[in-house]
Specification:
Blueprint: H1 2-37, H2 43-46, E1 50-52, E2 58-61, E3 66-67, H3 71-76, H4 78-81, H5 90-93, H6 95-99, E4 112-116, H7 120-130, E5 135-141, E6 147-153, H8 177-180, H9 190-200, E7 209-211, E8 214-217, E9 220-223, E10 229-232, H10 234-239, H11 243-253, H12 255-264, E11 272-273, E12 276-277, H13 291-296, H14 307-318, E13 322-324, E14 329-334, E15 349-351, H15 355-373, E16 383-390, E17 399-406, E18 413-419, H16 425-440
Parallel strand pairs: 1-4
Antiparallel strand pairs: 1-2, 2-3, 4-14, 5-6, 5-18, 7-10, 8-9, 11-12, 13-15, 16-17, 17-18
Helix pairs in contact: 7-16, 9-11, 9-12, 9-15
Length: 442
């Protein structure tokens, strides 16, 4: 009898260990199954899905490991499509979709094909327009959230990656600057200061400023590239990007108000864009009455922005105060078929400022093009924009920014262009934007 009892206890212990082991395996399967299946070493077994652009142009074939046919397209889409070095690439972020992985069925139903929202030919135009410069070009539909163009440079051909990326020409090459980087915004931040002025300064229409090229704050000087003239209105100061005028406005509004509007404008937030988490912007409030606070109103001091969040802000202004979170996944199907394997990804909307504020900004940004940047540089496109020339110090040329949107019902497109150390925002980044938008609006 004792022997039977002893054997029963042993069997119960074994059964308990088996049950605990099975439970542990199930927990690991549920929490780490995706990582097991989609480990890059397993791509020959499970990574057979393909990636296409919105028009069905092949960008990556998981079965063969080959990329797009054109070398220029491969370089222009490298950061999005990716290889094992790009953590934010769609090959990595959407690997479970490409393999067709499901926690219940595993990969039993086969791989999936992914169709991105981007237009490969538009990416190609954008990459060529950067002309070897580092930077970012992005365009998205501010009604639907679909990203049509997303280029980060420098890049390389993923079919023939460089053996040495330590040189300056490849600095930051593994980083998608659109998602993961922060940059000083320069004068494009004046959109934030202007929004705060419109809503918090009741007498803003009577604002006037005399610019002789410099503005003194506590014995220190804010400079403008030139004297912008006397009796400037808010709209004129915005169009001429007068640092002195915006320094004065920053001092009047105060750092807490500016930070509140940077927050409500969404540029201090982090977003999930089709599985990729963007970097959150920064705004350090300078002490009241100081030149630091004055400079922060013009996008200098310690202001830092992420291109993705600023693109959303542009879309929000164009869309009457509702900023759509960008999306990259247009559709998904079972491989080599047109049978859908998931629902279309939907864009969430974030409220920014009031419609009246956004309408006023839209009108001012349209005036910028007509008065300062020159409509002739953009053909017949109805562009509303703000340029920026962000000082970076250390003897380097400033970053060139150009951001805005098309005020056209048939082409609801917002854009952001950054040319690192490019110099003049309107001339350099504006020229890139013009080439890309002319293509996008055809």
């Amino acid at each position: 009898m004792k022997q039977v009892r002893r054997r029963t206890m042993i069997l119960l212990c074994i059964a308990a260990f088996l049950a605990v082991g099975l439970l542990w395996f199930c927990v690991r399967w549920a929490t780490q199954g995706r990582d097991w299946v989609n480990y890059f070493g397993n791509t020959s077994l499970f990574g057979n899905g393909a990636i296409y652009d919105r028009n069905g142009v092949l960008l990556y074939d998981g079965k063969t490991g080959e990329y797009a046919e054109q070398k220029s397209v491969r370089k222009a889409t490298m950061h999005l499509v990716g290889d094992s070095n790009i953590a934010t690439s769609m090959r990595n972020v959407l690997s479970d979709r490409l393999s067709g992985y499901h926690p219940i069925t595993g990969t039993a139903f086969g791989s999936h094909d992914i169709y991105l929202t981007i237009d490969a030919s538009l990416n190609d135009v954008a990459y060529q327009a950067l002309n070897g410069k580092k930077g970012v070009v992005a365009v998205y539909n501010y009604k639907t959230g679909e990203i049509l163009c997303l280029v980060s440079a420098p890049s390389y051909d993923p079919e023939n990656p460089p053996t040495d990326v330590s040189g300056s020409q490849y600095e930051g090459v593994y980083l998608n600057r659109f998602f993961s980087s922060l940059f000083p915004p320069g004068s494009i931040f004046k959109v934030i200061t202007t929004a705060a002025t419109l809503e918090k300064k009741a007498d803003w229409q009577s604002f006037r400023f005399d610019c002789d090229g410099k503005f003194e704050v506590g014995g220190q000087v804010i400079t403008c590239p030139r004297a912008h003239g006397s009796n400037l209105t808010l709209q004129q100061a915005f169009a001429r990007s007068c640092n002195g005028a915006f320094g004065q406005l920053a001092l009047e509004l105060g750092g807490d108000v500016l930070r509140t509007y940077a927050q409500s404008g969404g540029i201090l937030n982090s977003y999930d864009i089709s599985g990729v988490t963007t970097a959150a912007g920064q705004f350090d409030v300078g002490a009241a009455g100081t030149i630091d606070l004055a400079w922060s109103g013009s996008g200098q001091y310690h202001d830092m922005i992420n291109p993705a969040s600023f693109l959303m802000l542009m879309g929000g202004i164009a869309n009457g105060g509702k900023a759509q979170v960008p999306v990259l996944l247009k559709k998904e199907s079972f491989s080599d078929s047109s049978i859908p394997s998931s629902l279309k990804e939907r864009s969430e909307g974030n409220a920014i400022w009031s419609r009246s504020t956004c309408d006023a900004l839209k009108q001012m940004m349209r005036n910028n093009v007509q008065e300062t940047y020159g409509q002739k540089n953009f053909g017949d496109l109805t562009i509303c924009a703000k340029s920026g020339t962000a000082e970076v110090g250390n003897g380097q040329a400033p970053h060139a920014w150009f951001s805005g949107f098309l005020d056209e019902a048939d082409h609801p497109l917002a854009f952001i262009v950054l040319v690192e150390n490019g110099g003049s925002g309107a001339n350099v980044a504006g020229a890139v934007a013009s080439k890309v938008l002319q293509k996008a609006a055809r």
